[in-house]
Amino acid sequence: MRLTRPPFGPAEFKDADLLDSTYYASADPHALWARLREHDPAYYCDPADGREAFWVLTRHEDVSMVLRDYESFTSRRGTMLCIIDLSMPDFASDEMMPDTDPPRHRMLREPVNRALTPRAVAAQEEPIRAIVRDLLRPALDGGVFDMAQAALLFPMAFTGTLMGLPRENWRRMSELTAMTIAYDDPDYSVGDSKATLRQAHHELFDFFLSEVRSRRRSDADGGDLLSILRAMDVDGAPLTEQQLVLNCYALLLGANVTTPHVTSTLVALMAEHPGQFRRVREDVGLRRLCVQETLRWSSPASHFMRYALRDVQLHGRTLREGEPVSVWLGSANRDERVFDRPYEFDVTRQPNKHVAFGVGPHYCIGAGLATLGLRIFLDELMNLVERVEPAGEVTHLASNLVAGYKNMPVRLTPRAGVTERTLSEAAG
User: Fold this and answer.
1) Looking at residue 45, what is its pLDDT?
2) What's residue 263's pLDDT?
3) What CA–CA distance (Å, rounded) separates 313 from 316?
4) Which of 36, 173, 224, 320 has a Cα at 20 to 30 A from 411?
């Protein structure tokens, strides 16, 4: 979606727009969220087209409260607004990490945590650095370079390596994960929305089932994440094939559909704020803050869903037991009550209480790996690129879940002495 700033025009919308993927590609959700934060922070959205109504929460405090309070708001019935009827049961309930509550959530999360220790994540630094250089190398000839398209494979490369997935499958898996969250986008759909979701799920689940069955429980010493999960027990028993497939899917989806759009945003911001990035180049200590501010600014996961487990009073409204509740991270990260100058990008911003990775028990399990990847991408961008210039029309992903780019044509001017040849020699 477009990352717009005030002054906003009138935020006219229909309730159905909040579900409509194309609205987020072409309209102005930030204007809508600003209006709701100020005038209707607990908004009851009724599409009036046969789909179930749901609550929309847009303030940082309310978003954080819902994500932390699993005793009042459950994840077990699904965590995303999508074309599926919100009143339907979730087939992944209690089987897939995102669709569980504590203590069950902790039981499924712990094996993955043990496979994503800081030491394991740190071991990915040099492979990720090589991946970033490979990504940027074609852009250093001065021609037009589509950053958004190039970035699509960035997380797949290091997540695929970490999970031990065959390289020849990476591109297709990136396409399939995009289909699951952009099922209405003409560049990813294969028929209607439901057919697109079915196709993506069928291929991904079949692929992971084949990979799971190719591992033995004695293969944990192989070191890849899937083998480690295959060898671990939960509550005294091995993970079932269904649990393994669903959780591999969740891990891949979490990485592939968000990280590319943060990297594209970082490049767009470098073009828009060259002075701030000169400071980041000169002061390495600012790079950690710059990554966090880019996460706040991009807010790639737009929303999460929960369902009320009891009646909850909020802003004079009653969220009734059983009702779906959506919390909007992109709005929370622009909340004027929390962030000074929320519509300004500031590489020195401290504190920065963004919720781009969520909060509470469902805080993104891959946050450490994603942050490492983004830091390395920023390092290499500063080392290799002197200037970024827009070079064509930017197009945005049609998705109500991910604030993403489809195309971002740019020209990158390499720093003095940096050529494709020097990069190749460094890689060698």
Assistant:
1) 96
2) 96
3) 6
4) 173
The widest CA-to-CA distance across the chain, in whole angstroms, is 64
Provide the β-strand partners of residue 304. 327
Q: Which residues contact 104 (CB under 8 A, 6 or more apart)?
A: 94
CA dist., res. 284 & res. 281, Å (int): 6
How far apart (Å, rounded) are the C-alpha atoms in residues 252 and 174? 9
What is the full DSSP assignment across 314-357? ETTEEE-TT-EEEEEHHHHTT-TTTSSSTTS--TT--S----TT
Q: Please state, in angstroms and rounded to a whole number, the distance separating the CA atoms of residues 104 and 419.
A: 52
**Nearest CA to 98 among 252, 213, 322, 308?**
252
Calpha distance 365→12 (Å, rounded): 37
Chain Cα centroid distance, residue 347: 21
How confident is the model at residue 162, as a pLDDT? 86
- Evaluate whether 185 touches 21 at the Cβ level (below 8 Å): yes
pLDDT for 86: 59
- Taking the chain, what is the end-to-end CA distance rounded to the nearest angstrom? 39
Give this prediction's pTM: 0.94
Query: Are the beta carbons of 142 and 419 closer than 8 angstroms?
Result: no
What are 123-179's pLDDT values in tens digits?
889 999 999 999 999 999 989 999 999 999 899 988 898 888 999 999 999 999 999
Which long-range CB contacts under 8 A does 268-276 form with residues at least 24 apart?
A: 268/147, 268/388, 268/394, 268/408, 268/410, 269/294, 269/297, 269/345, 270/381, 270/385, 270/388, 271/388, 271/389, 271/390, 271/410, 272/345, 273/345, 273/347, 274/387, 276/345, 276/346, 276/347
Q: How far apart are CA 186 and CA 329, in angstroms?
A: 26
pLDDT of residue 329: 98
Q: Beta 317-319 vs 42-45: how paired, if at all?
A: unpaired
β pairing state of 405-407 and 395-396: antiparallel
Low-confidence ranges of the chain (pLDDT < 50): none
Q: Exposed, middle or buried by CB within 10 Å (0-12, 13-18, 19+), for 181? A: buried
The identity of residue 412, as a single letter, is L
Q: In this structure, is the dihedral angle defined by the CA atoms of residues 295, 297, 302 and 303, taken in order, positive or negative?
A: positive
| Cβ partners under 8 Å of residue 23, min gap 6 | 13, 17, 29, 400
| Burial category of 126 from C-beta neighbours within 10 Å (exposed 0-12, middle 13-18, buried 19 and up) | exposed
CATH number, domain 15-427, options 3.30.70.2660, 2.60.200.30, 3.20.20.80, 1.10.630.10: 1.10.630.10
Residue with tokens 């701030």: 276
